[in-house]
Write a structure and sequence with these properties.
The protein is an alpha/beta fold. The protein has nine helices and twelve strands. The chain binds S-adenosylmethionine (SAM).
Length: 282
């Protein structure tokens, strides 16, 4: 039975997220906490009734305090637990700082370079989204405010883990989905390194997901898709891709940290895909 609520006492402010031309999702908002334009995008932090605080960039919800941990744990712990001894990590994007916070839980990690194009996203997340970004200062984290595409092209360093935690392929993130970018990333990933990225919804953005998978297959020896359910994202079911020049061997015993979504069972099973996704990737 659904409890009846007195909706008269709720605000009449709504945020509408449009997914393509045929789908709109409406969220009732308590109030707007932050609203401004950076040189790159429109940044809003809104407090919603059902999803808690939301980070919205150019009208697209990036993360929420209700379920951002699911995405951030999956994009971080899976590659870390698939590497024999990860020490040096590169994150491209990830301005909400949720992924870097997860990576920093591993004492073996000596250095995390985080290349985010928009400094204002990091500042806003640290100020208004502490539930996601955390409030600790970690000297291993080196923020580089630059375009990840140029960084990958010009970088002379080599990394054990590279994570692309990007927004959807619009605006400054378009190039983060290109073959050229993946090839440049491959040059700065060590031979036993692991690459991971978000690869969109298998239901609503299956063409993008398939393109990411096939492009990675052209560059890497082993590519695996894995999924998690993130209620904030359209359809809930979300995909991630992991890639290696050798083989992806995930050791669930390596998982550490006070996690809320991922555990050893999820690490063991997350690469098991629904049949319709398996067929899409053939
Ligand atoms: N979890 C989120 C999602 O899937 O919607 C994405 C997290 S994070 C907020 C995405 C970040 O990528 C944004 O802060 C954005 O500024 C950054 N970004 C977009 N294009 C970029 C680029 N070319 N180089 C570096 N960062 C970029």
């Amino acid at each position: 039975m659904v409890n009846s609520k007195n909706y008269d006492s709720y605000s009449n402010l709504w945020f509408t997220e449009e997914e393509g031309h045929n789908l709109k999702l409406d969220y009732r908002i308590k109030n707007i906490i932050f609203d401004d334009y950076s040189s790159f995008q429109h940044i809003v932090v809104a407090d919603s009734y059902d999803f808690g605080k939301m980070l919205i960039l150019d009208d697209a919800i990036q993360t929420t305090t209700a379920d951002g941990f699911i995405y951030n744990e999956m994009i971080s712990h899976v590659p870390i637990c698939s590497h024999p001894n990860p020490e040096k990590v590169l994150i491209i994007g990830g301005g909400d700082c949720g992924a870097v916070r997860e990576i920093a839980k591993y004492p073996s990690i000596k250095k995390i370079d985080m290349v985010e194009i928009d400094e204002m996203v990091v500042m806003v997340s640290k100020e208004y989204l502490k539930e996601i970004a955390g409030d600790k200062i970690d000297k291993r984290i080196n923020f580089i405010f630059a375009d990840g595409v140029n960084y990958a092209k010009e970088c002379k360093e080599q990394y054990d883990i590279i994570i692309v935690d990007s927004s959807d392929p619009v605006g400054p993130a378009v190039e983060l989905f290109s073959q050229n970018f993946y090839e440049n990333i491959s040059k700065i990933l060590k031979n036993d390194g692991i690459f991971a990225c978000q690869s969109e919804s298998p239901v609503f953005y299956s063409e993008i997901m398939k393109k990411i998978f096939k492009t990675l297959q052209d560059v890497y020896n082993d590519v695996k898709l894995y999924t998690a359910t993130v209620p904030t994202y359209p359809g809930g079911l979300w995909s991630f891709a992991a890639a290696s020049k050798t083989n992806i061997i995930t050791d669930s015993k390596k998982l550490i940290g006070n996690t809320r979504y991922i555990n050893e069972s999820i690490l063991k099973s997350c690469f098991c895909l629904p049949e319709f996704v398996v067929k899409m990737l053939k």
